[in-house]
Design a protein that fits this description.
Strand order of the largest sheet: 3-4-5-6
Radius of gyration: 20 Å
Largest sheet: 4 strands, antiparallel
Structural class: mainly beta
Number of helices: 1
């Protein structure tokens, strides 16, 4: 019998509305799949379609799902992640309308990177792997898929993930070595022969002197704040700090410089800690169909819309 404990299951369900305009919602749900988790942390995260895909595109109608490692590595089951034979620590890509999955409730796209694997244990739903907690997934204007990955004790990281890429967890935390068989609070420099592993490293990262858990981010696609054009905006869940990188600086294999911005609220500069009244801000980002950006702070249940910005100062 399997001796690894199961603390909970994450269940992905598709809901169909009887009338999309009706309130309250009425409709029927259909389970696509469920995933066992070792602990309550780092479960199923982002569930998203590629907003750039159009009818006829290979990506059209395909669903990306970030699946965390469920605390596997830090609970001494590192073999459950960083493998194409397990679903933990991955971004998967499925077709909700298909039926060729093992349970027959969704499809596995023929263009997925591991579909042609001869290994019968390969999880062919996997698009990219080697994440601890692929918390948010989004795309740039030019079509790169960005994944913000919440780290363990040291590094928060932003990746450009591509088909078949491996971000290294749990033997890498950002651009550092980590040993899951030892004290996982410790990180070490990369070895001279590191390139032989083929790990895809972050395009931006910060350590826990600056924050504790990366969230989100979007490239600004709107028109109302021209100062934000060409910037990818993200932040830290816990401390509520707000960051950005210049899209022109973002390249796989290098580290973009992370810059910070502040909020002016009612004409006064405020931190999100001050606005939310909580030491853990629990901030998130949103983007509307016009490309404009929003901030949410969970403790006080507020949604803020970014309306203007000043160069060399603060988006407001």
């Amino acid at each position: 019998a399997d001796s690894i404990k199961v603390t909970l299951q994450w269940v992905l369900t598709e809901w169909k509305a009887n009338d999309p305009k009706s309130f309250p919602f009425k409709g029927e749900g259909r389970e696509l799949f469920r995933v066992n988790m070792v602990s309550q942390i780092h479960g199923v995260q982002e569930v998203v379609f590629n907003p750039l895909s159009k009818p006829g595109d290979d990506d059209y109608g395909l669903l990306y799902v970030g699946v965390g490692d469920g605390g596997s590595a830090e609970n001494r089951f590192p073999f459950l992640c960083n493998s194409t034979e397990t679903i933990w620590g991955t971004v998967i890509r499925i077709d909700p309308k298909g039926k060729n999955s093992r349970n027959g409730k969704y499809g596995i796209p023929s263009s997925n990177p591991f579909v042609k694997s001869d290994n019968p244990n390969t999880i062919k739903e996997i698009y990219s792997y080697g994440f601890r907690n692929p918390h948010r997934i989004t795309w740039s204007k030019k079509g790169d898929m960005f994944v913000s990955n919440i780290g363990h004790h040291n590094i928060e990281s932003l990746y450009i993930a591509h088909a078949g890429s491996n971000s290294g967890w749990p033997i890498r935390e950002g651009t550092f070595v980590i040993d899951p068989s030892q004290n996982m609070f410790n990180i070490y420099p990369l070895p001279p022969d590191d390139s032989s592993l083929g790990v895809t490293y972050p395009v931006a990262e910060y350590d826990h002197d600056e924050g504790n858990a990366i969230t989100g981010g979007f490239e600004y696609w709107g028109k109302n704040i021209p100062e934000l054009q060409g910037k990818f905006v993200f932040g830290d869940i816990v401390k509520g700090r707000l960051f950005y990188v210049e899209m022109n600086d973002v390249k796989v294999g290098t580290q973009a410089t992370i810059k910070e911005w502040q909020v002016n609220f009612n004409g006064e500069r405020k931190t999100l800690v001050e606005l939310s009244g909580a030491s853990k801000v629990d901030e998130r980002f949103g983007r509307d169909r016009n490309g404009e950006l929003y901030l949410t702070t969970k403790p006080d249940g507020k949604i803020y819309r970014l309306v203007s910005a000043q160069k060399n100062s603060a988006p407001q």
